[in-house]
Amino acid sequence: MDSLRLVAGVVYMVLAVILTPPYARIVYIFLSRKKYRDLECYRIMSQTGIVQLATAPTAFFSGFLQLSGIDVLGLAGGFLQVLFSASVSVEIQLNLCLALNRLKVIGEYKKLGLVCMILMVLSWLYGAVYIAFLLTPLCRFYEVPGQFIGRFDFDAPYTWLLVTIDSYVLLGYIVATFFVYVFITSCLIRLRRRRAYEKTSSKLSYSDGTIMWSEW
What pLDDT is stored for residue 192 in this prediction? Predict the structure, then answer.
């Protein structure tokens, strides 16, 4: 076994074991406490956390695969890699939901709540369909010892089509998320200027009133 495989295997397994419990605790708090559940932003972050936690078994078993060369039940090189790939896609889509939620709160666009709900449902459906396709002989995503991340098998008949569709979908979500945050930034700048103007106007009104009172 080369040193790179050894380091990668140890790092994957250690990170999965150390980071998962505290992160799971945070997600549990968001889900179990009413003050967090009642806020849409925390519900979205909880879903993102669940998606990220779903990648922990992949890291652990991938590390074991690198160290031992044994793929337990075919999980590390098969289903868990598919789950990892799907989790990345779903997380990117949920990031747009979180950005829209922040825009809804900052810009007071209440109708965006419905848009967020629809996008959340679609993101989970997308992930389910994505996994279903990769578990068929039509598409394939796998990992082998010495290969530190999963890769697509383009010998499968429809892998190229799935990768192309997924790439365009995720690119669209990333671009949309970027522009939402640009708009949020512009809203914050506008709010800051408005508050500065109101504060200045208030001071001027107070000064004028003081002068008039002293003259009287």
Answer: 80
Q: What angle do CA 172, 24, 53 make, to 5 degrees?
A: 40
> CA-CA distance, 67 to 69, in Å (whole number)?
6
> What single-letter DSSP state applies at residue 123?
H
Beta bridge partners of 151: 142
Res. 213: pLDDT tops 50: no
Give the distance from CA 167 to its chain's centroid.
Answer: 16
Distances (CA, A) of 19 to 11, 31, 107, 127, 215: 12, 19, 35, 24, 69
pLDDT score for 178: 97
**Global confidence as pTM:** 0.83
Q: Which pairs count as long-range contacts for 14-20, CB under 8 Å and 24+ apart, including other chains?
A: 14/63, 15/59, 16/56, 16/57, 16/59, 16/60, 16/63, 17/60, 19/56, 20/53, 20/56
